[in-house]
Every structure is written in structure tokens, then in C-alpha cells.
Amino acid sequence: MSFLIMEKGERFILKTFNGATTPSKECEEKENYWKLIQEEGTVVNFADDLGFPYKNRVLLQFDCDVKARGLECHNEKPNSLWILKTDLKEIR
């Protein structure tokens, strides 16, 4: 498995969420972030840089309006979520 070297400002597409393409049956609609699969966004921060325990995540700011899709989004940057690096595909 090859690992991407990511930088702030780079653009990616969400290909999976938490390693899966579909949510579990118990997933609440407001937490169904799988709706964002195939959406594009920009890396704005790294968990490593902020001392977060989940170092394999990046803060991805989506181009779309996350809240307009009925999803919770509580980060300081609008339309941004902490996403696993392995859930992202580089836009070329």
C-alpha cells in the first residue's frame, strides 16, 4: 500500500468514509457522512500538527455545504470534517 504525502491546500475526493462505502444500518441520518462520497475538498489541517490522538486524519474542507445535506458539522472551519487519510483520493 502506498501512502500519499499530503500538504495543506491539496485537493482530494472522498472515496470512502471510515473505510466503507455505505453506512451501518444503525447510522443516524445526521451522521450519514457517506452522503459526501465523491465530493471534493481541500486539506486545511493535520491531526498530527494539532496533537490530536488520531494522527491518521486530516481536516478536509468540502466544497459543498455539509449542513445543507442535513449532516452535523461542528468544526471551526465551515464544511470541514476530520477524515481518514486513507478515505481520500488525490485529484490529478
UniProtKB/TrEMBL annotation:
It comes from the Bacteria. It comes from Pontibacter burrus. This is Uncharacterized protein.
